[in-house]
Amino acid sequence: MADQLQPPLTRIQQKNRDRILKGALSVFSTSGFRGATIDQIAEAAGLSKPNVLYYFASKDDIHKSLLTTLLDMWLAPMIRINPEGEPLEEVMAYVRAKLEMSRRFPRESRLFAYEILQGAPHLTEILGGGLRDIVDRAATILQGWMDQGRLSPVDPHHLIFSIWALTQHYADFDVQVRAVLGPGHDPFVEAGPFLDNLYRTMLHV
């Protein structure tokens, strides 16, 4: 017999699910995956343990769902790259969006980075499929602009990697960056003009 489609979540169910993921983010960010427990997640979410297990079968299920949600969020600005837009401005909009996400969601960025450093055990299928497809699409757009002489020619995949590295560094190594800069500095405000100048110089034709 074919599997029945799951009915959409009610507003209350979606609210509870979001509470669990928010609580899980707090717990995983401080205790790591191995140190986190369902009890801790339930307490952080303000729900009972049975209530948490009603929405998610296990800690692993919560972790994978959280990471998948985060990956969707990270990839959204890349999906918005418009092949009909002005090439340099499309790239700069992507850089600014990634930097702003690092500013607004530092815990999420660090959690995702930690998962990758562990070999991405919860994201293997996604990284080899959906992520690659989206990155390849963006790289194809970038290569097309370069072939048209509208951007300076560089390897498009490594251009994307560099944007990830330079923007997410400010979230993943926030303590180090602030220690080096010292009091009175806002790393994200100061990084914006630097990255803008860097990529405009690199890609301008």
Give a description of the structure.
With 205 residues, the protein is an all-alpha fold. It folds into two domains: 9-56, Homeodomain-like (Arc Repressor Mutant, subunit A), CATH 1.10.10; 59-203, Tetracycline Repressor, domain 2, CATH 1.10.357.10. 77% of the residues lie in helices and 0% in strands. The protein has helices at residues 11-35, 38-45, 49-55, 59-79, 87-104, 106-117, 124-147, 156-172, 174-181, 187-203. The radius of gyration is 20 Å and the shape is globular. This is HTH-type transcriptional regulator RutR.
Q: What is the SS-derived class? A: mainly alpha
Strand content: under 5%
The topology string of helices and strands comes to HHHHHHHHHH
* Helical run tally: 10
Fourth CATH level, the homologous superfamily of the largest domain: Tetracycline Repressor, domain 2
Query: What can be said about the biggest beta sheet?
Result: none
Domains, number: 2
CATH topology (level 3) name of the largest domain: Tetracycline Repressor, domain 2
Helix content: over 70%
Q: What's the CATH class label of the largest domain?
A: Mainly Alpha
Tertiary shape: globular
Overall average pLDDT: 90
